[in-house]
């Protein structure tokens, strides 16, 4: 069988995945390869292939032509594999130490062969298990500053930037976010999924016209603002971590969008973890939020000053205006993420994993309340300290 | 010679243009065709072909692979012909009565064969000759409401909209606007072109940091906001008119951008005409500005209410927010247009044609002052009456 010569898509098996690895000469000729499919089967096949002689290993990720979430299934473009591979390559130009190395891609087969990171943990899982990852926020702040700056009009020739906007047009994956983050949770929609005890809170939320108006503005920004190339799904489940390493994976939702979206999703997922644990243990997460923002702004500002090609980056006040707008967006998008992870289709284990019923419901109420507060007050929160003060004041009542 | 069988681009001549018209069977078989090239030779060839027997006529427009402006020449993509033809076809879906009919296009030859509109006048030329075009603003308000609404996320499935964003990515033509409208006039750049007597005013303008900051924000919006498919160059030179007809031509700058850009350019060019004539004759132009906005908002609002597919169009306050944002952008973009048409590379005959030196300089100073005022005050001008009051107060001193 010659996988690489075939011209039509076909899902790999553990056998054909090994054959592909051999064809690509990614292992020694005398390697003894062991292959396991380790994906969750919802969106992608993920093959872990290891040479049992020298312990070297790789990952082969292959997109499936459908998405399965909570029993539902709908067709989904294989193109997302190309988007993901290209986004990983773009990021590798600026933060090679923070993304997996890509060894090989094949658009037809929708596969990416890349570095195996299984010595690390998924950050969400680790955070739930009380791992603190002291370097997580410094690394993610750096990842965001560098990737978000370098793909923007601040740093690129506008013609080059527009070709990249075109390359990363990603309608199907964006639609998932438009529906599941910005729309369905704010209306009585069948995709929503929440516990009975939240019904009154959810109805209150659905009845808040002024909240919907603010979400409309945030959704509009997501739909129409091509500020830079985003990861597009930068929650703690898209990050591998250890005490000294951090790697951002799975940018299949990458597209040109507003900078605050990536930052907001990451911060919201730190806050979802904070909400799910005892209040006296939250301080390290608040520190992560604070460090994320300060590292991001320090490095973004430094790049702006030294590598900005847009002439207006030299005009006093423009950087400050841009950072203020990013902060406002960050807070608003974080608010949407908090709400949709509590009552929308895709939940987080941080909240759902709380065993005690009363504690879990209280945590979810806190998430809903904090989400709404952030969306409504985002223009008045002008620093990361303000944000943390707001967070503390909303969720102290548990 | 078989024009349509050739596979490489070649500029048409009057002879080959006629042969093409015959091949396309656009005239009777016994037609006696007369052809004249009537373009200005800067960007496109324009052939006017007429059957001398029945007086029927067509236009063949062919893009040239370069742009010539004020003696300079630079290469320019032929792709713009395809953009223009496709934009005309999109507009014809919504306002067929306000654009020329397209009979044929050929991407390889970069030609569009279309309705001959030479029974009409270019609106700029007519306005300079004191023609008032009573229906101009009603028609352009309608054109803008319908074209700008129907290509936006308010009206389109977001996946369809993103494919259109991709189709209309237009880096080279956008770059011309980015440079000549938003950048060069605000810096001491070699493309600028202004009269000696304006030197002090221009230096004042270049020294205004707070002005540059506001222009930076407007340029950012132009660079990053894909609200809808714009005409992209909607000044009075892109409009054919008579007392009862209006036709919008030349959308080769079409791309997905902010709604206020088209409206701002049109209104600015009405104001440039107003500035160039005696104050007591300006009222009909102010009425045109007012009618443009009221017709646009009435029809846009009606479409929003009846044909909005985005669920948030049903949320109270979102339409009002959107219109307010469009007005603010309109005023800011109009300010940039006033300035660049006075001191930038591409002037307008309204101002340059004022014979009396003193009057011309005063008019240009008024244009510069009004442009800056609109840019700086755009957030405080919350209605079209406010705008006209501001205009009157700035340019009354002549």
Structural account:
- 2 copies of one chain form a homodimer.
- With 398 residues, chain A is of the alpha+beta class.
- The first copy, chain A, has 2 domains: 14-115, Phosphorylase Kinase, domain 1, CATH 3.30.200.20; 121-395, Aminoglycoside 3'-phosphotransferase, Chain: A, domain 2 (Alpha-Beta Complex).
- In chain A, 49% of the residues lie in helices and 13% in strands.
- The first copy, chain A, has 14 helices and 12 strands.
- In chain A, the strands form 4 sheets. In chain A, strands 1-2-3-7-6 form a 5-stranded antiparallel β-sheet, with helices on both faces. A 3-stranded antiparallel β-sheet of chain A has the order 8-10-11. Chain A has a two-stranded antiparallel ribbon with strand order 4-5.
- In chain A, a hairpin with a 6-residue loop joins strand 1 (33-37) and strand 2 (44-51).
- In chain A, 47% of the residues are buried.
- The model of chain A has no long low-confidence stretch (mean pLDDT 95).
- Chain A binds chain B through residues 153, 158-159, 161-163, 165-166, 169-172, 174-175, 178, 183, 187, 209-210, 212-213, 215-217, 219-220, 223-227, 311-312, 315-318, 321-322, and chain B through 153, 158-159, 161-163, 165-166, 169-172, 174-175, 178, 183, 187, 209-210, 212-213, 215-217, 219-220, 223-227, 311-312, 315-318, 321-322.
- Chains A, B: Catalyzes the phosphorylation of methylthioribose into methylthioribose-1-phosphate.
- Chains A, B: Homodimer.
- Chains A, B: Keywords: Amino-acid biosynthesis, ATP-binding, Kinase, Methionine biosynthesis, Nucleotide-binding, Transferase.
């Amino acid at each position: 069988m010659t996988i690489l010569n075939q011209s039509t898509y076909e899902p790999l098996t553990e056998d054909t995945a090994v054959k592909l690895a051999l064809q690509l000469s990614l292992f020694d000729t005398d390697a003894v390869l062991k292959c396991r499919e380790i994906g969750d089967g919802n969106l992608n096949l993920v093959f872990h292939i290891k040479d049992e002689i020298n312990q070297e290993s790789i990952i082969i990720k292959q997109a499936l032509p459908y998405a399965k979430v909570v029993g539902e299934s709908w067709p989904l473009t294989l193109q997302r594999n190309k988007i993901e591979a290209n986004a990983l390559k773009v990021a590798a130009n600026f933060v090679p130490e923070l993304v997996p190395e890509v060894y090989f891609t094949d658009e037809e087969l929708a596969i990416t062969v890349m570095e195996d990171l299984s010595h690390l943990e998924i950050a969400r899982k680790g955070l739930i298990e009380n791992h603190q990852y002291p370097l997580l926020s410094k690394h993610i702040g750096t990842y965001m500053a560098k990737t978000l700056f370098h793909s923007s009009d601040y740093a690129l020739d506008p013609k080059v930037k527009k070709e990249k906007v075109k390359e990363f047009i990603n309608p199907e994956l964006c639609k998932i976010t438009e529906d599941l983050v910005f729309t369905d949770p704010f209306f009585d929609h069948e995709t929503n999924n929440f516990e009975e005890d939240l019904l009154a809170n959810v109805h209150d939320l659905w009845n808040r016209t002024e909240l919907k108006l603010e979400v409309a503005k945030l959704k509009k920004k997501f739909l129409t603002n091509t500020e830079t190339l985003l990861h597009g799904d930068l929650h703690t489940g898209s990050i591998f971590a250890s005490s000294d390493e951090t790697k951002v994976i799975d940018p299949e939702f990458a597209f040109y969008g507003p900078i605050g979206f990536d930052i907001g999703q990451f911060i919201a997922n730190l806050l979802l973890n904070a909400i799910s644990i005892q209040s006296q243990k939250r301080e390290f997460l608040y520190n992560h939020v604070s460090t994320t923002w300060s590292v991001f702004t320090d490095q973004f500002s430094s790049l702006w000053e030294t590598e900005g090609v847009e002439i207006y980056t030299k005009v006093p006040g423009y950087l400050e205006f841009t950072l203020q707008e990013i902060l406002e967006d960050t807070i608003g998008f974080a608010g949407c993420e908090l709400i949709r992870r509590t009552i929308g289709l895709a939940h987080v284990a941080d909240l759902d994993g709380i065993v005690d019923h009363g504690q879990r419901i209280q945590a979810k109420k806190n998430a809903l309340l904090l989400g709404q507060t952030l969306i409504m007050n985002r223009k008045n929160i002008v620093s990361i300290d303000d944000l943390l003060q707001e967070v503390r004041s909303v969720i102290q009542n548990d």
